Amino acid sequence: MELFEKLREEQVRVFKQPFRNKFLNFSDGSYRWGTPTATSPRQLSWSEAFHIPMTDISRFAGLAQKLAAILADKLGHNSTFFQQSCLPTSCYLRLNRYPPCLIPSDIYGLMPHTDSDFLTILNQDQVGGLQLVKDGKWVAVKPNPEALIINIGDFFQAWSNGFYNSVEHCVVTHPTKERFSAAYFLCPSYETVTESCSQPSVYSKFSFREYRQKVQEDVQRYGYKEWLLWNEGANFPIDEVLRWIHIVLVCVQDDPAVSSAILLLGSDSA
Ligand SMILES: O=C(O)CCC(=O)C(=O)O
Ligand SMILES: [Fe+2]
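Above: inputs. Below: predicted complex with fe (ii) ion.
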């Protein structure tokens, strides 16, 4: 936790610089503010963020790798997949700052999304605002200074063949307080192709590069990503299903009692 305190001090120092410095001094793509693609206030993220590539083998990387290995172990897999595919250059740290927002009920600090990576280690300050979907409802994740938050990302969902689900989350704004968070993303390299740990896989194969590109297109077109959903069922055993439908129809035809019951269920008077 000492590490996070130091990180937070640096984070505040970096964000406190004038906008011009941040805009000019940080390389293309590493500084983000607002949402250029937004067409309504609901699609706006009231926040700014820095991406810092993790070129050193960091303590974050060690922790993230350990967590991924524990989760894989739970599925009965002693996987080296994460070590091989998550290179230090493909993982990064995102520093987020959420300024106070006077019209908080309409504006998100960060729009609802799932993370695309394997898993994310998140450290939030004490202001609160992070929410996630549980049993179809948005619930607040109460800040706890002693705890880190671990999010499953889309690629872990695909690797675990849907056993673990990437969780939808968002940040709501605060009317008077500024909020900070830091998120470490355990990402595969762009060449990594999803590889389900069990068969048959419910996802078709796609590389992390393809996935990122598709997500960007989706967000521009629809305002959210839908490709993982679309991919689910790409390997749906349609031949098998058709064979079963055929068998059921044959059975129904052979049994007059079942046929008349189906007719009855299908009629308006039933
Ligand atoms: O600030 C937070 O609590 C969440 C950040 C987040 O979800 C992200 O950076 O992807
Ligand atoms: Fe996130």
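The two ends are 64 Å apart (CA to CA).
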